[in-house]
Every structure is written in C-alpha cells, then in structure tokens.
Please model this.
Amino acid sequence: MKKNKKFLGLMSGIALSLALVGCGPQESGSGETSPEKDASNGTTELLVWEDQDKAAGIADAVAAFEEEHDVKVKVVEKTYAQQIEDLRLDGPAGTGPDVLTMPGDQIGTAVTEGLVKELTVGEDVQSIYTDVAMQSQTVEGKVYGLPKAVETTVLFYNKDLVSEDQLPTTLDGWYDLSKEMTDGEKFGFLALFDQIYYAQSIMSGYGGYIFGKDDKGNYDPTDIGLNNEGAVEGAQYIQKFYKEGLFPAGIIGEQGINVLDTLFTEGKAAAVISGPWNTEPYAKAGINYGVVKLPELSNGDNMSSFVGVKSYNVSGYSKNAELAQELVVFLANEENSRKRFEITKEVPAVASLANDPVVAEDVSAQAVAEQSQFAELTPNIPEMNEVWTPTDSALQTIATGKAEPQAALDQAVETIKGQIEAKHSGK
Model:
C-alpha cells in the first residue's frame, strides 16, 4: 500500500462503492474488455497494467511469453495503488487491462465488486511464495492473485551522523539519542507517527490491533482494537516525540512525508522510518546510509510493521482470462521474480529467493526480509477502507496536542464503526 502515503495515499482513502457492484462483468460477456485480437494481423493481444517505472523488470518475461504463446502483450505503466480505481471506469468502458497489479489490502474490495477473477492455481504454484504473501491474495479460501513483491518499513540511518557501533537497537535508545542531537536544525530519529500505517508499529507492539479474527482466522470487522489499553499506551509513547519537540512541527499532516525525506536527504536527520521505495532516492541524494530492521520497544517486543504485497491479478472484464492467468503465473514465477528484482530492486515474494546471493547482498532487501518476521498483513477486507482517515485524524490531534490519546482514539473507533455500519452492513 509506498508506502509513503503513496501508500497511504498509499493506501489511504480508497473508498468502497457498493453501487458499482452492478457494473461488474457479467457471465454473458457483455461489458467485457481487452482486445481479443489485434485487428492488423489477428494475433491475440493482452493488455498489462504494470507499476510506474517497473515495466523494464518484466520486459524479458513478456517477450518470452509472446514467443511461446504467439500472442502480443502490451504493457502500460500506471501507479499501482490507483489501478483498481481506474479499472472501475475502464473495465466497463472496454479499455481496461487483462492483467493488473495492486496492493494486497485492496483484494477484498476488488473481490466484493467483481473486479478480479478467481485464479485456478494448484499448491505447486502457491507453495513457492511466503505464507504471508500468499495469504494476502486469498479471500475466503479462494485465490485472486499471485504475489510479485513485498515491502515493509525499515530504519534508514545516516552513517555520517551515527556510526554503526553507536546505532541504537531500541526505540528508547533512539529517543535518548534524539534528545541529544535535536537542536531545531538537526534531528535524531523521525517517523510519520501521525499516520496509522506507521503508528501501528508501536501501537500493535503494546497490544493494539485494527481488526480481531474469528475462530477461522478471518478478520472480524466488529472487533476493533484501536482504542484498547495497548493502543492507547502506544499512542502515549508516540505523543512524547511531538510534545518534547523531537519531531519538527512540519512533519504532521499531508506534507509530513516531504519534510521527513528532505531532512534525511539534506543530512539533517540521523534516522528515519521509511521503506524500500526510498532506497534509490536516498542513494541519489548522496547520503551514506545503512538500513536495518525497526528497533525494539520498551517491553522487549520488536516494533511491528505492515507488510505490503504487490500482486498480479486478472481483471474481471478480461475476455482472455485463461491466457491472462497463464501470464500471471509466468510473470510471478521464481526465475522472472529474480530477474525483476535485479532490475527494479523490489523484494520478491518467492520464499527461496530470500537466500539467493543476488538478493542476500542487497542490504535494503535483507532489512526488509528481517523486519518481515515481525510484520503483519494490512487487513484485506473492504472495511479496512474505513480505518485510514479517522485514525490518521485522531493521531494528528494527538501529535498536535489537541486531544489526549484515549479520547482521540475513542472518537476514531466510533467513526469507523459508524462508517462500517453505513457502507458494509448490507453485504
């Protein structure tokens, strides 16, 4: 979900519109899209929506698939978090893709609206991926996509400001170091804790959670743990970074991600929580940085994080769904996942590649792999869409001192419950 609000825009605020369910593809085929034949030569054509600036990672795989299947595959780059929203319009209009890529937390919404097709893939295919990655593509026991990459937040630090042997391994240690370093111009540790995507790393470590699960392991949207004792304790811990001036005022709100990145790339912040999407920008800025997993909390538990899973999925409007599924399986296989990593540096979801020398030598990839041991999936049910904005708003009032954690989180949970009741109770 870039996780800057890339995620959050990144994942944030993608609303479920049940009114669109009726616009989904029909069994008769009416309203289906994707050019079945290239008018010029009669060759079957598939349209793939790939993530922005990532088409090069699948160029060889696409060429091999075209040759093997005597088809033409057209690849168009689109921001991956936006693709489902675009499909809602382009699918019925007949201009949508056969294959798309999207964040795992959107799967539930996409399935509810009939925007993606169930895949018929056996255990031999599913078993090559990490459990958590494959779980993100499964809704009520059915598979709707295959994982192409995983990402989660990690800690980037400036080696010129804090040496490796001085590197704190606990959040308390970073708090203490920040008190020593912060002078209004330079800062120690920074994070976007006014956003639940990042704040959950602490809140869940103390016992908070978004949705509980039933006895079958399915998310229970009636069980919300964002204002329980652990969540409040985590929010109180977060609050002191703001109260004591250890975070700059500009780090709160929509511009926070720009402030955080600017301070780090200008050498004015010793460490930031970010994700692998910033590996290249930080390198281009000339920062001598290291990357490690997130630190431990005062209770001894490691900070958690959301693990984001990017997937390849077959559009519910595809006229060539069977061939599109073959392409998904091919693009996401071990060989092509490794090749894509070499080019894009997106951490592959294939379990065996964690020990591959090419992946193992990449410090960012290794940090992501290590942190993933403590990560949790972003809930992939439609009700998750109602969580982002109310919780972010509550965290911002906590950060600015306009409300205390318990009251702010109580209000957020009340709003979430109301929105779930209003938008999802009739499903």
In short: Confidence is low (pLDDT under 50) at residues 1-35. Residues 232 and 402 are 16 Å apart (CA to CA). The first helix runs from residue 59 to 69. The first strand starts at residue 45 and ends at 50.
